Amino acid sequence: MRARPIQLRNLLKPISSPSLNRIHLQKPVPFSLSSSTQTSLNKPLIPKPFFKSDRYDGLVNRLCRDKKFKEAIDVLCQQKRLKEAIQILDLLDHSSIRPSAAIYSTLLQLCLQQRALEEGKRVHAHIKFSGFVPGVFILNRLLDMYSKCESLVDARKLFDEMTQRDLCSWNTMISGYVKIGELDEAHKLFEEMPEKDNFSWSTMISGYVRRDRPKDALELYRRMLRDENMKCNKFTVSSALAASAAVPCLQLGKEIHGYIMRTGLDSDAVVWSALSDMYGKCGSIEEARHIFDKMLGRDVVSWTTMIGRYFEMGRREEGLGLFSDMLRSEIRPNDFTLAGVLNACSNQAAEDLGKQVHGYMTRIGFDPFSFAASTVVHMYSKCGNIESAKRFFKGISQPDLVSWTSMISGYAQNGQPEEALRYFELLLKSGTKPDHITFVGVLSACTHAGLVDKGLEYFRSIEEHGLTHTADHYACLVDLLGRSGRFEEAEEIIDKMPMKPDKFLWASLLGGCRIHGNLRLAKRAAEALLEIEPENAATYVTLANIYATAGMWDEVEKIRKTMDERGVVKNPGSSWIEVKRQVHVFLVRDKSHPRSKEIHDFLDKLSMRMKEEGYVPDTNYVLHDVEEEQKEQNLSYHSEKLAVAFGIIATPPGTPIKVFKNLRTCGDCHTAIKFISKIVEREIIMRDSNRFHRFKNGTCSCGDFW
DNA sequence: ATCCGCAAAA
């Protein structure tokens, strides 16, 4: 930056004119020049940003001397040297040359490009005082400059002052409002404007889409169709597709698809990607893929979108397949792509694969300041490898909030709540501002550690950090109190909290009631929960388990009947384990695995050893009315046990085993795996839908506090 | 001018 004044000096030096001295005074040279020779003056302190700009300086000097100010400004603007270009206006003032629309237009265009509001205002002021009467073209440029700089108040002032406005003025004004999200103001103008073109319509439509008002967008699109003067172009069609994708409305999307084919608008890459995305968002992933395959000019974003779509639907194999296709194509994945793949690894707990992606990122040299770094932290911590997460985290020079939060909640879930809280303190020291999700991690750490009072303190401190309590925070608080049996306080909070308790809160409370056998409150929580989501089988099952533990079998039976009547289907529990980069999935009583016989034989043997060690099956966890002796058998074939057993026989002795379950683990399995970890002398890590359990030598990191 | 992509918890 320090090179600038020198350039200016060089540029102006050969000209002798009274106005030049003025500029010299305005721009003092920031270091001593007394001993410098002419040659050293010509050498810039830092490399000049533009090729051969020395020659251009000479050129500009000559142009100014010849009073060819317009040309001088053009040269400077081409080099994006806005500040110097504006200085030329001063030279102009002191000459007999009158400013022209062309000069202002060039300058404004550069201001607009660089979002330079201050400079733009200077040009505007110059126009006002130079006596130049701007035409609608220049005024539109000014409008555009203000609206691109998001200075809508200035834009509107100008707009209202304009004696004549053309279509472009209206459109510029509208798109300015749309850009800053003032859709209602934009819409007001939209209704007022004398005539609308494709731009007006598509700006409004896509504005509504982007601000999450897809219904308004569609309504507008329908209105546009009724307007006989309007013929859709690729812009309106694209925004209409985005609208039907956002609603989502497959039927309308298909209509637009048909329209596109009929009118030959299908030659545009953007239209194609909007089309593919519309099908993807409307759930027709096959159709989306079909269009993707036929699409010309697929870019990183289209690849990333398509890959992410598969992951969204849980179709991991296809997503990864497409990712490897991408690696073989000429398009390179970027941070978004990698983040998407890593995120899929996190959710599926595919650590080996995640490691590979991490390795790939290291090889191509990813930007350590990018959000992609945070997804690596998240991946390791979600895969239960908090050590790797920490190692990677420590290698980031300036971790972002997401990385911090991933570490905090990672520790909280992995049975090291003290470490989580330590990281929170470190975060505060680092000067990063926590957000509401960080506090969810902190509060859940307190919950896992049983630090009720400390949790209450953190809860109170949330507002001191300039944040407001969210429903999530209240859910954490109730979880905290409920798990340690402080139900009175929990209920008081529920009755007093400023928003309606959500399903997470009631589910937490129900969990607390299960631990402490609080039947009355369990009933209240379950009722509230069933009102919110009557189809969730987990609620029925938990409530039934609470009654079963209390020996109230009539109630259990009643719940079972209600479930049948309402047609509630239990979400099938499944567990999986990654062995040699292959994922093996197990369901209850699953016999489909190729090594099923071995697994079951092994479990039988294990079962005997466990009983010798003092394990007693807890049949309360069996909801359905099977015969007593059969219950025990059902238990031993729960998916998590199958996956653990397979892990043991498929890996060398001593290898830690990592199993993942889509639901919460059942209490009996939890006890059983504690025994297994001791018998086979393995560390067993299980991630259920709630947290991690690390079993080692007969105990679990959750301290049975789940 | 228009389209599409990431992230922390429960």
Automatic annotation (TrEMBL):
Residues of the DYW domain: 614-706
PROSITE patterns the record matches: PPR (PS51375)
Any GO BP: RNA modification
GO molecular function, one term: RNA binding
Coiled coil: none
Pfam families (alphabetical): DYW_deaminase, E_motif, Eplus_motif, PPR, PPR_2
UniProt keyword terms in alphabetical order: Repeat
PPR repeat spans: 100-134, 166-200, 268-298, 299-333, 400-434, 435-469, 470-500, 536-570
Family of the protein in this entry: Belongs to the PPR family. PCMP-H subfamily.
Name of the protein described by the UniProt record: DYW domain-containing protein
